[in-house]
Amino acid sequence: MGKILDYDEMNDILDGLDSKIIKKKKPIGYTYFGYPIDHFVYGHGKYHVIITGGTHSSELISNVFVIKFMEKLCNKEIDIDKNLYTIHFIPIVNPEGTIIVTSAIRSLIPKNISDEEEQTYCLAYYRNSYIEGNYVNKYGDRDYKLQQMMFRHATPDILDDRHKVLKDYLDKLFKENDLPIGCMINWSSNGRGVDLNSNIENSSLINRVENGEEIYASLHLNNIRRDKLGPLGCPYFSKKGEIEKENEALLNFYSKIKTEYNLIGSFIYHSCGDIVYYLGEAKKKNPWVNLTKEAKEKNYKVAKVYADKTGYKLDGLEIYTTMDSKLKSLFPVTLLIELGGVRATPLSQFMDLDLEGSSDEFKRVYSKIINDNILAIIDTLPVMLDLYNKYNG
User: Fold this and answer.
1) Number of domains in the chain
2) I need a labelling partner for 240 at 20 to 30 A (CA). Which of 13, 35, 42, 113 fits?
3) How confident is the model at residue 357 (pLDDT cuts 50, 70, 90)?
């Protein structure tokens, strides 16, 4: 059995969790195509925490990490005081994108494959992406990409007919915007082709899109345009300021928890980079709130604990033009964590090899992501609680 989970497998695991330990609640909202953004709760304590994964669906390890954390809680492999904390899980922030990217994966990598076989696909995908990154640096081409050509038969037609409305829309989008062959494997956006993290009122991309600029992604993805609806980057569907249903639901949910309960912090998972972002000095005025020295100090202290536990780099957020930066600003003890140091999502973070002579960067990538970040959450929660009581007691 491999480590990769597709959308159906994720939901099978989530539906099979012990409801006496983790309860499935009403969805926080629904996507444009009607998919639920599911919400699960562990514990009944006074202090509330939010954990999310999968804003960018190609960053598949973020979904898998959150789900594995939930599994281990249910199996009592880890212990968090359920009488002290209430943890809210949103493991699949972007269901439509997750359906798209995992359908692409399953077009090549079978579900019931051995772990060893799965590793060969992940390594090949990583190496092809690395080669293409070097080609871009050397030749600057925007030609077909090796890692995309692995998935050249992943077209909208591969989506199951349960997703017919989404499938038909994607088919139209591919034709209208001339999307690159194999790019479903790089799908970070939602089903409409909007990048949820860029979908914010002051996205740095908006003016460039409005001015008709052609904006391309970088390195091994430099054949994908970010100014058009598609796999990544596009900030809005049809008009400036139009907020997608996923983001609207997430903002409303955060606000509700903060208003009605004691929200002590949250963890937002992305990939990749081995980075923990704290609230840094803004290069331009923060558009949502004037961050106090106290708020920034709290955020830094929590981020440092997490970074020390994982060995991740600490990085100060300086540009506040994304959905995540809005959440971090409005709910300051929020950490943004980039899982895994190797690039090339969605497959490279599932490499779990220990090849003789390989650098530490490539050893047990998957295992380190899962194990180190679980321990980091456990160590960080008491610090969040102490800081909350110190400043709100």
Assistant:
1) 1
2) 35
3) low
